[in-house]
Amino acid sequence: MNYNNRKFRGRSNTGNGEVGQGTVFTYYQNDDRLWGEYAGGEIRSGHLQGKVHPDGSISFVYHHENVSGELMAGKCHSTPSQDDSGQLLLEESWQWFTGDQSSGHSEIEEIIE
Q1: Domain residues of the chain, as ranges?
Q2: 22 to each of 42, 76, 82, 93, 109, how far by Cα in Å?
Q3: CATH number of the domain at 6-102, please?
Q4: Using one digit for the tens of pLDDT, what is the confidence trace for 1-50?
Q5: Which listed site, 11, 14, 42, 69, has its alpha carbon 20 to 30 Å from 108?
């Protein structure tokens, strides 16, 4: 699985998450190294750094500033799948390092341009 230069947007999230439908991610990949940028919706600016596993899943840490000016950080594990139309989806299990340190589940979908 290669994520280089792919864009995603928020599709769903649990109530304790900040990523929403207005959040856009851009992923970059070199070998098994993954990094990215994201912004939009409740997030002013964010970055992530992680690894792509042989099965295509991703483990990464992330940090961002939200629109309230808070600095937030956490960890995430994403599992790829495709919907009926062939669109790439990432199902995510994440946990905050900051704030209440709660966990949640979200899904992001590839933006096909």
Answers
A1: 6-102
A2: 8, 19, 21, 19, 12
A3: 2.40.128
A4: 899 999 999 999 999 999 999 999 999 999 999 999 999 999 999 999 99
A5: 69
